[in-house]
Amino acid sequence: MGRYKFSQSAKLDANNLWLCPLTPDSLSVQPDEAGQRIDKLLALNYPLFSRTYFQKLIEDGFVLLNGQPVKKRVAAETDDEIEVCFQLTPESSLAPEAIPLDILYEDEHLIAVNKPAGMVVHPAPGHPNGTFVNALLAHCQNLAPIGDPLRPGIVHRLDKETSGVLLAAKTPLAHQKLVHAFASRQMEKTYLAICLGRPPNITVDAPIGRHPVHRKEMAVLPSGGKEAVSRIEVLAFNETVSLVLVRPHTGRTHQIRVHLKHLGAPVLGDPVYGRPKCNAEKKASRQLLHAYRLQFTHPVTLEPLSLAAPLPVDLKEWIVRLGYNTN
């Protein structure tokens, strides 16, 4: 759609950086969303941000409706295209922080770490600092200013409570090629999870979209969702839980968690898609989901890489209970 047209009130200074990727985050208005004000609709679709935050973006010209600046009182219509160019909030910090990183692989082009459960990938409302990005800026003294200013080097994300392999780029070339590799499904991703019950060994081909009622959640939507495909394989099980290996072929938000819930086998400890009573009974304090392995071609050297993240203690304890040998 070409370059953005920003209002004259939109300003850039050292204390209030704005981020504007070449392609903004965008959404197409669904029939059940028609008639809602733009600021409210955006707050429902991006739950990490407040309605007030989006009102400010709209006022400063960082929200486009069908390619044009919009006012916050405007109601959306079905199939409208909304584009959002996010800003750093004043409380968000991109200051380097000396947070230890469990490095799995590093060279001059990229870095891969074993992200612990509880670490947020990049600053966002409610998590202004203490993130992987803050740690990355401290570790990589000469990190190139690539990608979004709020997410330098980030090429994919893991949920806060999901542990495992997290990859970041250190140069513009590596960033461009890794983003393309994820988008074109050239990354082979393998996850391990403890889930309730025993799901079948199956390839789940079930589209995912925003939940029609609970707008902060995702759900399987037979119509209107985006393609989502996951291969599920049970490695071990007992009468109540299973250890499953999951290979997602697409990368939708919360895909594995939503697909396992769809199969009636939600991830143990999942506070959103799981079963609160079972989580409490089994003392699962976080969703037991681990990004175990990432296999891909190095974006510069073209070397094949296979990076595996050691199992966290809580997941390993469950695997031992199930009698599965990880060696």
Outline:
With 327 residues, the chain is α+β, with helices and mostly antiparallel strands.
Question: How is this structure best described in words?
Answer:
- With 327 residues, the protein is α+β, with helices and mostly antiparallel strands.
- It has three domains: 1-88, Roll (Structural Genomics Hypothetical 15.5 Kd Protein In mrcA-pckA Intergenic Region, Chain A); 91-184, 2-Layer Sandwich (Pseudouridine synthase); 190-291 and 317-321, Pseudouridine synthase.
- The protein contains seven helices and 15 strands.
- The strands form three sheets. Strands 5, 6, 7, 8, 9, 12, 13, 14 and 15 form a nine-stranded mixed β-sheet that branches. It has a four-stranded antiparallel β-sheet with strand order 1-4-2-3.
- The radius of gyration is 20 Å and the shape is globular.
Relevant terms:
alpha+beta; Pseudouridine synthase; nine-stranded mixed sheet; four-stranded antiparallel sheet; 15 strands; 18% helix; 24% strand; globular
**CATH architectural designation of the largest domain:** 2-Layer Sandwich
Whole-angstrom Rg: 20 Å
Strand residue percentage: 15-25%
Which structural class is indicated by helix and strand composition? alpha+beta
Q: Label the overall shape.
A: globular
Please, what is the oligomeric state? single chain
Uncertain ranges: 1-23
Q: List the total number of helices.
A: 7
List the helices and strands and how they pair.
Blueprint: E1 25-28, H1 38-45, H2 51-59, E2 63-65, E3 68-69, E4 81-84, E5 103-106, E6 110-115, H3 132-139, E7 163-169, H4 172-183, E8 188-196, E9 202-205, E10 208-210, E11 218-220, E12 229-237, E13 241-248, H5 255-262, H6 276-281, E14 289-297, E15 304-308, H7 313-321
Parallel strand pairs: 7-14
Antiparallel strand pairs: 1-4, 2-3, 2-4, 5-6, 6-7, 8-13, 8-14, 9-12, 10-11, 12-13, 14-15
Helix pairs in contact: 1-2
